[in-house]
Amino acid sequence: MGLGTHPHRDMEIFSYVLEGGLARKDSMGNGKQLEPGQIQFTSAGTGITHSEFNPSSREPLHFPQIRVQPRQRGLTPGYTEWHPQPEPAGVGKVLVISPDGRGFSLRVVHLAWLLACLRLPWLWHWPRIA
Fold it and tell me: Is the full-model pTM beyond 0.85?
């Protein structure tokens, strides 16, 4: 199950895999299966199509996805994968996205900052795609 091929334009899409695997294919030729702790970021720009699905018939997929509109329209579409730097001892959060890429975060074309709170048990209660 999952989301069949669908279009996006002028949107920045961030997915953070918490559990299971997320298979993804897009019109830019990217195809990948992401594992827990991996993050994918797509800038839809002038337009893309993509699909996302759970490749497992037994293991649930659990991932939050955030979509924001960039400050500029008509950007060149792009895709990247990002892996957070290991958190310092005693720190339960990490900067994941920012407009300037500070602290090894992923740079986005939007005035947005996203912190992942890595030790909060409620994170595991997002809806799942089985």
Answer: no
Query: CA-CA distance, 101 to 63, in Å (whole number)?
Result: 22
In this prediction, residue 122 carries a pLDDT of: 44
Report the SS3 class of residue 125.
helix
Q: What does DSSP assign to residue 91? A: -
Residue type, 53: F
Contact between residue 129 and residue 4 where contact means Cβ atoms under 8 Å apart: no
Q: In terms of CATH, what superfamily is 2-124?
A: Jelly Rolls (2.60.120.10)
What lies within 8 Å, CB to CB, of 38 at 6+ separation is 17, 81, 82, 83
Contacts of 121 (CB under 8 A, 6+ apart): none
